[in-house]
Amino acid sequence: MADVLSQGEIDALLSALSTGEMNAEELKKEENESKVKVYDFKRALRFSKDQIRSLSRIHENFARLLTTYFSAQLRTYVQISVASVDQLPYEEFIRSIPKMTILNVFEPYPLDGRLLMEINPNIAYAMLDRLLGGKGVSVNKINNLTEIETKIMSQLFQRTLESFQEAWSSVIDLDPVMEDIEVNPQFLQMVSPNETVVVISLSTTIAETSGMINICLPHVVLEEILPKLSVHYWMQEKKKQRQRGEAERIERHIQKAPLLIQTELGRSEISIHEFLHLGVGDVIELDQLINQPLTVTVGGERKYLAQPGKTKNQIAVQVTELIEEAEVDE
């Protein structure tokens, strides 16, 4: 919608046109000229803004789950939040992270490919120090991690995948599996250098130490579920959930509705005179043979065939056959 000009702005515009300060023809020419936008094919935008917003929502939930998880594990102040969500070439992402860092590579089954979680060394070693009984001070020792330290960190980050799985549960049921921990990004080639990836940067504070956790999601891995990341899909899913909820509610009410079930033992025709003179002990002859099944009606409609009998000294019937709809219509 065009901006609405005030009366003062309109008067100033008319004055400029009348004095020659502005040329109406030039304004029309500028408006008609085609607007050219620079497009860098090396930074191909493969994700729509809608999908980026959905990824941001998913990882805001992931950040909250991580905050709870790390707070419980480290028993100290932890704050994690989404700082940015960007799409860029994989090569550019690798260049942007430290030369020596903590790289958790995991496979998001049933999706094909690998995802990456990069934890800044300041954060990673503050966590390690806290787990080993320290105050959560970051000590740079990335070049000489012992096997025990590597195992401890591996187990800590392995359990973050449970939070990742829960955050994505509204879109797809993932079963992520930790594949490896690397420290040098130059030795890690998950996808081609020009492949577009989404990088979700999580601003992280552990006690008095701050840093970033970066999650790298290649387009080629998420390609098959991209339609599920649109607002239209989310709205459809919510509509389906509402419809399912309404259907379940109606079904529950229907199941509680009372139904009259009757079994017809047989029929007989007698005169009014005979009916008026019926007494105790009289016998009425029915047209139902003893070897023929009885008819069971549900809500007045013929539904089953049954045979008479007794159970616990009470008269009962045993359903033997379902009457088909075609037979009922006849």
TrEMBL record:
GO cellular component terms listed in the entry, alphabetical order: bacterial-type flagellum basal body; plasma membrane
Gene3D superfamilies noted in UniProt: CheC-like, SpoA-like
Topology versus the membrane: Peripheral membrane protein
Alphabetical UniProt keywords: Bacterial flagellum, Cell membrane, Cell projection, Chemotaxis, Cilium, Flagellar rotation, Flagellum, Membrane
UniProt-listed CDD domains: FliM
Residue ranges of every copy of the Flagellar motor switch protein FliN-like C-terminal domain listed in the record: 253-323
Alphabetized InterPro entries for the sequence: CheC-like_sf, Flag_FliM, FliN-like_C, SpoA-like_sf
Any one Gene Ontology BP term: bacterial-type flagellum-dependent swarming motility
Keyword Transmembrane included in the entry's annotation: no
Subcellular localization(s) per the UniProt record: Bacterial flagellum basal body; Cell membrane
MF terms in GO: cytoskeletal motor activity
Major location category of this protein: other
SUPFAM superfamilies: CheC-like, Surface presentation of antigens (SPOA)
Stated family: Belongs to the FliM family.
NCBIfam families for this protein: fliM_switch (TIGR01397)
Protein name: Flagellar motor switch protein FliM
